[in-house]
Model the fold of this input.
Amino acid sequence: MCNIAVISVHTSPLARPGTRDSGGLNVYVRSLGRELARRGHTMDVFTRRTDADSPEITQLDGPNGSVGRMRIIQIAAGPLDADKRAQRRYLEEFRRGVVAFQERNDLSYDLVHSHYWMSGWVGRTLADCWETPHVVMFHTLAEAKNRHHLGEREPKYRIAGERTVVAGADRIICAGEGEARMLTDLYRAQRSGISVIPCGVDVDHFRPIDRAEARAHVGLDADEPVILFVGRIEPLKGIDVLIQAASHLEGPFRVLVVGGDEKDGRRLRGLVRLARELGVEERITFTEAATRDDLPYYYNAADVCAVPSYYESFGLVALEAMACGLPVIANAAGALPEVVGSDGRSGHLVPPRDARAMADAAWDILSVPGKAEKMGHTLDIANDPPGEISRGSPGDLSATSSEDDTSPDRTPAPGTAN
Done:
């Protein structure tokens, strides 16, 4: 069995998904840890400390309250409230903190698994130090974001950092073929060193629930049609496109945006202003990110789930919605075509950034009584998944080197993270 060091610098699996820097990555790491523990492996997840009062080590419970095999370890590196982009300045400090913990506790690791480019930089240097394989999952790529969201540019230092991590990784994991192609085309990754492992979904947790019960639980009107958005409040998620789509719809409906917290005030005010300018302010409701226990109720209370992201490397929200029997309308971007599929059973794909097409897709479902429910019940995601979807675990990490054992040489780690 393996003892795995997981690097997740900028966000912790303990954070609530849907808030500022917490989303699919958090869900993925925690779910992966649960599945690896079930297979007998152990995981230490190293993340940056953001709270002075939280314990250094948090042991996550295993099945049925047993002692778990996954620990969250907080490493002090930089100011507690350091912005995500500023954290690159403290990566060397973070690396030293991880090594100090490992040496102080006389630990050894069989594998380093990093998530996101900053973690990849740290993981790469640790793998060199410990002489272990390095597996990385980027979750998002700067080149992808720059190509899909023209109004917000990722900095050159991030692209350079990603290239460095790609060159030194023993294995890169992607959730879809689109990201694998981008890595080979834009980052010169070797295809033989990439494993495409579709994301899974917990169908015991995300499952159909009685609609009336779900609506009562989240406080929604019993009859008003609801278009649901779940996710972080950030430009790449395309909430602006969804609001524009709402301005093309007629009749009674509610757009419910579930995500964000008090730190997202400026972005939320901008979205409210857009809704007011388009005359749909009264049709849009914003509520803070839901807990994991409440999320299935939101999905089951809605008539359709909108995923208007400019780019999605995962598409976990679409997966969760479909597992609850909720049809999805999604931009045909990133991994979403692979997740949603093109046969129309689970929803509709629309051209990216096309608000009119998204409105037409929503109307196609909402305007026909019973159509949303029929589409949801047609799809049995547990036994007959659409696209390239795995039912259960996020993936198997057994392949940690390329098939022909010709992974690229590691280039020396820079002295700073700049």
